Amino acid sequence: MADIDPAEGKAIAATADRGTSSSASLLQWARNEVRIIAPIITLIFLVVFFSLATTSFFSSRNVLNILEQSSLLVILATGVTMVLLVGQIDLSFANQATLIGVILTMITGAGYSPWVSIPVCLLLGSVIGLTNGFFTAYRGVPAFMTTLAMLQITDGWAIYMTGGRPLFTVPPILDFLGNRKTGPIPNVVMMGLLVAAIAHFVLTYTRLGRYIYMVGGSPEAARVSGVNVKLINCVVFVICGFTAALYGLLATGRLSSAQPGTYASVMVDGLAGVVLGGTSLFGGVGGMLYTIIGSIIYVVLSNGLNMMAIDIYIKTLATGIVLLFAVVFNVYLQQLARER
Amino acid sequence: MVESGRDSGSLVELRGVSKRFGGTVALEDIQFDVRRGEVHGLVGENGAGKSTLMRILSGIYTSYEGECLLGGQVIHLAGPADARHHGIGMVHQELSVIELLSVAENVFLGRQPLNRYGIVDWASMRARAHEYLNELGIDVPVNARLGTLPFGIRQMVEIAKVVFSGADIVILDEPTSALSHHETRRLFSLIRTLRDKGKSIVFISHLLDDVIEICDRITAFRNGRNVGTVEKGACDKRLLIEMMIGTDKHIKTVEQDAAVSLPPRSTAPVRLKVANLSRRGQFENVSFEVHAGEAVGLYGLMGAGHAAIGTCLFGLDPVDSGEIFIDGQKIKLSSPIRAKAAGIAYTPEDRRRSLVQTAEIFKNVTLPHLKRVLGPRMDWLIKSKRETEVAQQQIAELRIKADSPRRQVDTLSGGNQQKVVLGKWLCFPPKVMVLSEPTRGIDVAAKADIVEHVAQMKDKGLAIVVISNEPETIMAMSDRILAFSKGRVVAELADTVVTKASTMEII
User: Fold this and answer.
1) Residues B246 and B376 in one domain
2) What is the pLDDT of residue A118?
3) CB–CB contact B353 A213 (8 Å)
């Protein structure tokens, strides 16, 4: 270095600097946006993999099927997204959906029109969510326990009312929304897009949405800013109850029947859809765009594994492992964000 | 020095010990020794190096320059467990006893006597614990669950436990700051008992009266250096304060201990009136008034109760009794939401917890008054342009070093974060502003900016309450000073000239 002219040395250093800084800034960008980049890459990878590994995956029929299932899952995952965004958890939404399906068929069976049964069901879902929210936010019971108890209550309620038997009195409007198309687009996809759009709007462009992110980001900071943290915590459970009920109605319409225990496994689907998308398990980061991608990933994964005609038990095992990786990655991202 | 009749050999000795953190020197060339059977006081301001020394002695910091001798042998402690093994015990301000266990279980923690079946021998454990505590003059039921006993007793049990587990030297960190007068007396008698049994005590405290009373020798630290050790009887409070803050000739005295003259009592109307406010275990019967355009400083040492007044005024913690009035109107202190509506703003001492670190500046700034920022029409709809304008105004007024209101808060320095915390409340100025430790841990320039802003708030007629453990902070911002000790107001300074030394002397 001693014989290099200082000015020249500086120039060399500057060039080297520029070279590293542009790649470094790309890296920095990727690092900052990894939460959304990773799910997108995962999705692309899965689609390419299943297209090559199976013959029927990319058929128009199957793609439509994936879209329909994803849309339904997005509706269920909307409320879950909000609950996770404030840093809480809900374990009861799947059983709530089952219960709502059962109650719908019973009200319909008693001769009431869908103009009565559907609003009653949506209201009931919200009230169940409110119960979760009340005990969690205003009585300080950990959400894990409140909603675990609610899981059991809703499950037991559904079994008690039906005696475990399936019910088939589903109003035609739900068959229309769940199974029919308007033009080339399945109605359930429209419903999914509508719910996702509204939820995205609420989260991004309303005061409520801002409070949800800020409370999730730091409940303490929100509290010392005079934000009604308890109310926000309670509201997300109400939303979650509402979307669970909506899911219960549409899914019942799709199956044309309701039966206790039908959607118990859906609890994993709903949480997986949110977490695979990259919404933080610790609150404050994430949103509907993430959840849409995450839901599609989850549906593609289970659909693709079905197409590969492997043992059904292997399929559950495989999705479990994928989910574990996703959760580990989610926690890793949180640590990364904290280090910055 | 006068031979006291006890063995005067050094039990622990530090020779030329220095400790650096990166470029900062925390300790420089420290000579320090503790004799067998003495109570050695350690005083100094925050950041003088007391905690660093303590952490070296208790094995938490294992890398340092210089030598540490124990009983004349050079040792190098490998960790806290090794320090305990060498007979060095530590009792922190936050006790490490287990409140759910009984007194006896705590004393024997980790070394419960077992019977021949390998099961805990309860009878023997209780009997021995009882005997042992009696010997130390601690009168307490050994079966009582520790959590049900008062703090002073829990502390003595912890000290007993540390000694029982083999400590010859016990380091006490701020042991008396949370004790009542009576409890302090009881602790002192325990310390004397231990001393007479040949144990050595290192007594670290800000409460100089206590230090002078109990210690045989006192060492003062300043800026990481040992400024001298004095014998009991050869020192008074003023001398210790001078050693700690450096009014000696070698330091620029003007800067170190400038006199501040407090103005005459304000004649403006009373904005905030606090009447007989009490919260169990925190403060008792506190009453004061703050006039419009006046700043009142609540000064005290850690645990004196003045910080809890801030959290109670903002409704974060409940009070047991007492009332507060704003502009003559009684306010219910039940939640921050109500406090905010009544016109009280509060900035907590912990900046990190009062900002959403992962969110942008503007989202933090508008958070307390989001509805007003977005309103009056369609106040539920986010209007980011309006929000960033509001935030930009605060960035400009408070001179926050940030290129954009969209910058994430966690990328800002401490001083700039503190300004964001202020900015949160200043976009719609409150009637009463409560600032808890507003300048802790921030750089000089940011400090000056904040002091200037407090002056501007006063000009706007706000009533300001400044809460701090640091006399400099209090003196820089206050028109009137209320000194707190053990949950009570012990003095009010108004219309007089104060110096740092004189302020420190009253508590």
Assistant:
1) no
2) 97
3) no
> Could you tell me how far CA A316 lies from the centroid of its own chain?
19
In DSSP notation, A169-193 reads: ---HHHHHHHH-EETTEEHHHHHHH
Q: How high is the ipTM of this complex?
A: 0.86
Read off the pLDDT band of B171 (50, 70, 90): very high
Which CATH number do you get for residue B290?
A: 3.40.50.300
Q: Is the pTM higher than 0.90?
A: no
∠ CA A39-A44-A46, rounded to 5°: 90
- Tell me which of A85, A215, A223, A225 to substitute to probe the interface with B (most B C-beta atoms closer than 10 Å): A225
Tell me the nearest-neighbour CA distance from B112 into chain A, angstroms.
35
A335 interfaces chain B, CB cutoff of 8 Å = no
* CATH architecture for segment(s) A34-339: Orthogonal Bundle (1.10)
CB contact under 8 A, B355 and A340: no
Alpha carbon distances (Å) from A315 to A94, A272, A293, A307: 20, 15, 21, 11
Number of domains in chain B: 3
Burial B393-402 (b: 16+ CB within 10 A, else e): ebbeebebeb
Of B339, B357, B382, the CB nearest to A206: B382
> What pLDDT, in 10s, does the model give residues A200-250?
999 999 999 999 999 999 999 999 999 999 999 999 999 999 999 999 999
CB contact under 8 A, A226 and B353: no
Domain membership of residue B161 as a residue range: 10-256
Task: Tell whether B1 is covered by a domain.
Answer: no
Q: Given CB atoms, is A220 within the 8 Å cutoff of chain B?
A: yes
